[in-house]
Amino acid sequence: MTDDVRLYRSTTNTVIAIGAWVAVTAGAALVVLLGATRSTQQLWALVPLALIALLVGELFWRPRIVWDEQSITLVNPYATTTVPWTMVVDIDTRFALTVVTPSRRYRSSAAPAAGALTMPRGGRDSLGPDQKGGVLRKSDALGTDSGDAAYIIRGAWHRLVESESIPLGRAGSDRARVHVHVTALALSLLLAAATVPALLNL
Fold first, then answer.
1. Cα 5–chain centre separation
2. What's the rounded Cα separation, in Å, for the pair 180 and 62?
3. For the chain, which residues score pLDDT lower than 50?
4. What was the pLDDT predicted at 128?
5. What pLDDT score was predicted for residue 45?
6. Kindly report the CA angle at 135 between 127 and 131, in degrees rounded to 5?
7. Are the CB atoms for 89 and 100 separated by under 8 Å?
8. How far is the first Cα of the chain from the last one, in angstroms, to the nearest whole number?
9. In the prediction, which pLDDT does 15 show?
10. What does 71-82 look like in DSSP terms, one character per residue?
11. Which residues make beta-bridge pairs with 105?
12. CA 109, CA 143: separation in Å to the nearest integer?
């Protein structure tokens, strides 16, 4: 990767992660206090709290989008996908920011589309700078995670295209790279398995 690296992380996901971790930390402190003053059996509650903390990290904190002049990388829960710009044919936002290639679609957990209860922060009629009229899909509106990310990344992609930095004719030959987060997956399964007996021992 070059020195010109960019990153997008959802503000919504970040707030959720920090809030959840604060709650888990408070819960763990309470469990330790109860274990010290009442019964050490209460300490079993730390196991499901550890699982919750790990899941919050994977589902809300880890997801991000990173890009440079060669590729765009989607860091998702339990897997990271790197897609060369040479393969990209579109940036979609129907369900989440999605990198479209001739053979596959790669969705990012870092930029989910607005749901029925999640309106654009700028209001129902928020438009992107390139929207001069007509119907705008809610997931493309600025003020949503998918819309904000799409605007930034489409701009970066268009600049690379205009500067002729993306080689042509390689969409069919280049391949995306997928890396599974084996450690996080194994730890999640271990904690999930340990949570059942931990709850039974409370």
1. 17
2. 13
3. 1-3, 116-118, 122-132
4. 46
5. 94
6. 40
7. yes
8. 49
9. 95
10. EEEEEETTEEEE
11. 100
12. 17
